[in-house]
Design brief:
Blueprint (H helix, E strand, L loop, with lengths): L6 E12 L3 E2 L5 E2 L7 E4 L1 H16 L15 H11 L17 H14 L1 H6 E3 L8 E3 L2 E3 L2 E6 L3 E7 L5 H6 L6 E19 L1 H7 L3 H13 L11 E12 L8 H6 L1 E5 L12 E5 L9 E5 L2 E5 L2
Antiparallel strand pairs: 1-10, 1-11, 2-3, 4-8, 5-6, 7-10, 8-10, 9-10, 11-15, 12-13, 14-15
Length: about 300
């Protein structure tokens, strides 16, 4: 079913004794705003978790294949699009960078949107090598930012093994390897998202796709456990549904009315109970819906 409404949403998630998104340019320390000390999680990291969840649920089968995935060779995927749309002759010869004309590229682009969930959801640049065009995705997310400044802790850890015989001889058989681990004791993060029905029509992003996307946001951390990330959980998904495609209220005005504040300011938070989440000063229970503006309904999905 085609999408014919605009949606905006707020995602709340937390981390306890883990690293939600390490920065490779800073020794894998948790990402943060250098001026305020607030923690950051990139939109790319959140989209990665959505992709992993969809791939897990649907077994990487069309129309839920994943374009951006581990060890993928993107031009090979582009070649599949040409072959399946009857333009395989353009791939013959040694020049793999041949690009088809407008009609060929448009057919390949449509094939990619039809078969790959993340292409029709987030969009993609597919003009490298074998040209499948570009897609502007109907779903976009912001960086997630922690409600309060975070404290990044560094821990020494020991592995009771070494990698080589030379290391074992150097240690006289002690066989220990020292390492470092970075964690955030606790942090509650907030991200904003937007869904455009106009762009959804261009990529064939459907109501069913949107439901799967929201389900992924609710459950993605349940299937992404690791020693590095500690305990991460989705704590709230608040969806503003507009009655029209253009929207019935400004997104930022709706977001500003959903407040997240510490219940005991000045005290370090160590769990979700340290915060109050209110819309117009009132809490919402999971599954509860309220009118947010003329033509806009707010639903707390989880």
């Amino acid at each position: 079913m085609n999408l014919n409404r605009r949606y905006d949403f707020v995602l709340l998630f937390d981390v306890k004794d883990g690293n939600p998104n390490g920065d490779p340019d800073a020794g894998n320390l948790p990402r943060l705003d250098a001026e305020t000390g607030h923690g950051l999680v990139t939109d790319v990291a959140l989209k990665r978790k959505v992709r992993n969840f969809v791939g897990l649920v649907h077994g990487e089968q069309p129309p839920y294949e994943i374009y951006i995935k581990e060890k993928a060779i993107l031009n090979k995927t582009h070649e599949r699009a040409y072959e399946d749309t009857g333009a395989g002759d353009l791939l013959k010869g040694d020049d793999k960078k041949r690009k088809g004309g407008g009609d060929v590229v448009e057919k390949a682009r449509a094939w990619m949107c039809k078969n790959f969930f993340d292409v029709r959801t987030f969009g993609a640049v597919m003009s490298t090598g074998v040209n499948c065009g570009q897609v502007r995705g109907p779903v976009q997310m912001t960086f997630a930012r922690s409600i309060e400044p975070i404290v990044a802790l560094e821990h020494s850890i020991t592995r009771m093994a070494v990698a080589t015989e030379a290391e074992a001889e150097k240690q006289g058989g002690d066989n220990r390897t020292m390492g470092r681990k970075h964690t955030v004791p606790y942090g509650l993060y907030r991200s904003h998202g937007f869904v455009s029905s106009f762009l959804a029509k261009q990529t064939q992003f459907s109501v069913e796709d949107l439901e799967l996307y929201f389900k992924a946001l609710e459950q993605m951390f349940e299937h992404d456990r690791s020693a590095a990330r500690g305990q991460m959980s989705t704590r709230g998904l608040y969806v503003f549904e507009h009655e029209s495609e253009l929207g019935n209220a400004l997104a930022h005005a709706l977001f500003d009315r959903l407040t997240v504040a510490p219940t005991a300011p000045g005290m370090p938070a160590r769990d979700f109970g340290a915060y109050a989440v209110l819309f117009d000063g009132q809490p919402l229970a999971p599954g509860q819906s309220v009118p947010a503006a003329t033509g806009v309904t707010l639903t707390r999905r989880c």
